[in-house]
Structure formats: C-alpha cells, structure tokens
Amino acid sequence: MQFQVPQFIETEDKIVGPFSIRQFIYIGAAGIVSFFLYFTVELWLWVLGTVFSLALAMGFAFIKIEGRDLTHVLAAALNFYWKPQTYVWQPEHPEVPKSEALEKEAGISLEDVLSGAALRNAWRGLQTGTKVSPRQVLEKGEKYQIFQKLSGERRAARRIDYR
To answer: Which of 34, 66, 97, 148 lies at a 20 to 30 A Cα distance from 24?
Structure first.
C-alpha cells in the first residue's frame, strides 16, 4: 500500500494572488494607514508616512531571518531585552566549605577521598586490623593527579604515562 507524503508543509498557501493571507494583511494594513493619512495630513507628511508604513509592512510580510518571520525575531528580541538576564550560582550552604566539613567529620582530606586512597586504606585496615596511611596503599608505580573542573569541583584520576 502506498501513501502520499506531503511536501513543502512549511510554505504558506497563496490565497490572494502571489501573497499569503498573512502577507496580504500586512500590506493591506499599510494601505489603510496610507489612505487615512492622505485625508488627514499634509502632502509631504503623507508621503513620509506612506513610505514608512509600506516599508514596515514589506519587512513584516517578506523578511525571514534564519527561517523565522521578522515578527517572531522582534518579539524574541524584546523579550530578551525586557526581562532581566542575571544568572547567579548559589551554593547550598555557603557558610561551610565542603572540604573543611569533610575533614572535621572523618579526619581525612578531600584529596585522599577523591583519589581513592582513603577507601583503599579503610579496606586494608578492615582486612588486617591495622591502620595504614593512605600514601602506603598506592601500588608501586601508580600515580594519581588531582584536577579541578570548570565548576570548581575537584576530582582525582589515575595518571597513566604512555611512552
């Protein structure tokens, strides 16, 4: 069974001659403004108002920026400039730095926890019943490096030097 797939679904239907209904309304509104200006103001002001309203109507009717109508682009620009744009990161508990709180609670430093040495130390102490310093737990040749992410979080990663 074959089905027809609609093509060009983003194009507007041409209702009034070569114009879509939206384009016709914009140009018609400019014509109405020009008509009322002709009977209410002087000739030079009528010409100036007609040129301005027709240019504005043509812009709204035909100009597209990256596939979007000029009305949508102007509405987005007004919303962007009208609303405040302040983004501030607030920590959950700004009075206590996390590394100091961890050292007070467990008696270990942030670097030891991040590098995994504290976990190995606790596991070895549990197995043997002795206390081993985290620096002794690292196997021979293993190197760990502490790095800081853009968010300020500190992490440790095992360093592998390829030669």
So the answer is: 66
